[in-house]
Amino acid sequence: MLVKIGVFFNFVVGAILAVPIVRYLMSPVARGRAGGYLDWLSLGGLDQFPAGQTRLATYRNPVRNGWDGETADIPCWVRNVDGQSFQVFAINCAHLGCPVRWFPESNLFMCPCHGGVYYQDGSQASGPPPRGLFQYSHKVEDGKIFIRAGETPTTGSPTALLKVGKGPSCG
Amino acid sequence: MRLIGRLGSWLDARLQLGKPIRETAEHAVPRDSASWFYVFGSAALTAFGLQLVTGILLATVYVPSAGEAWNSLQVLNHDIALGWFIRGLHGWGSNFMVAIVLIHMVQVFLFGAYKYPRELTWMLGVMLLLVTLGMAFTGQVLRFDQDAYWGLGIGASIVSRVPFAGPWLVNLLLGGPIIAGATLSRFFAMHVFLIPGLLIGFVCLHVLLVLKLGVNEWPVPGRIVRRATYLQEYHQLTHTKGVPFVPYAVWKDILFSGFVLLSIAACAVFFGPFGPGGPPDPTIIQTAPRPDFFFLWIYAVLAFLPPAAETPLLLTAPVVGIALLLLLPFIAGEGEKSWKRRPIAVFIVLLTAVTLGSFTQLGLHTPWSPVMDAWSSMPIPRAYLHGRTALERRGAIVFQEKQCRNCHSLDGQGGKRGPALDQVALRLTGDQLVRQIIQGGGNMPAYGKNLSPAEATAVVAFLHTLYPEGQAPARDAAQDLALGADQARTPPR
Question: What is the model's pTM?
Answer without folding.
Answer: 0.91
